[in-house]
Amino acid sequence: MGSIGIETIAGILVTVAGGKFTPLSCYVGLHGSTGESIELMQPSGTLGCEYDIERLRMFFEHQSSPADGGDNPGVNHAGIKYLIPVNPVTFYVGGSYEFSGTHTTLDNPLVVVGAETQGDVRFFVEHINSMFNPDGGETLMGVKYVF
């Protein structure tokens, strides 16, 4: 087990700056997961940016373990979600493409289904699975702070 390194610190700073100085909503967070489809040390960290156009959310997300310097490049996926807001929660369904391929056994394209609270601090639960190979999948539960 390592410690939080310069790559993690730099990633957090770039993500925060992206959320503060661009039209993107960017976030940092921590989550735990169930399943064996994503092979990262728990808890895992999340860095991402998203942009909403009405009920469509385009996103890019990076997942890795902040305490493991050896899981580079982590899990990276980008895609689109359809949002269904039901105050105080937003449900979503969508798809993504995972392009690092090192720490996951999920085949592309991916299906993403989840729910998150609204606001700057969001609690979320999300399930990620392969669209054409539905065995396995990963359910994530955690919190993220949006900038």
Note down, in words, how this protein is organized.
- It is built from one helix and eight strands.
- By secondary structure, the chain is mostly beta strands.
- It has one domain (6-146): Porin (Beta Barrel), CATH 2.40.160.
- The protein has an eight-stranded antiparallel β-barrel with strand order 1-2-3-4-5-6-7-8.
- The longest helix is centred in the N-terminal third of the chain and has 16 residues, at 6-21.
- The radius of gyration is 14 Å and the shape is globular.
- The relative contact order is 0.21.
DSSP strand content = over 45%
Cα radius of gyration in angstroms:
14 Å
Tell me how many strands there are. Answer: 8
Helix count, per DSSP?
1
Distance between the termini: 29 Å
Mean residue pLDDT: 92
Low-confidence stretches: none
**CATH architecture group name:** Beta Barrel
CATH class descriptor: Mainly Beta
Describe what is shown at a glance.
The protein has 147 residues and is mainly beta. The chain has one helix at residues 6-21, and strands spanning 25-34, 44-53, 56-64, 75-86, 89-98, 110-117, 121-130, 138-146.
Topology:
Elements: H1 6-21, E1 25-34, E2 44-53, E3 56-64, E4 75-86, E5 89-98, E6 110-117, E7 121-130, E8 138-146
Characteristic key phrases:
mainly beta, Porin, 8-stranded antiparallel barrel, 1 helix, 8 strands, 11% helix
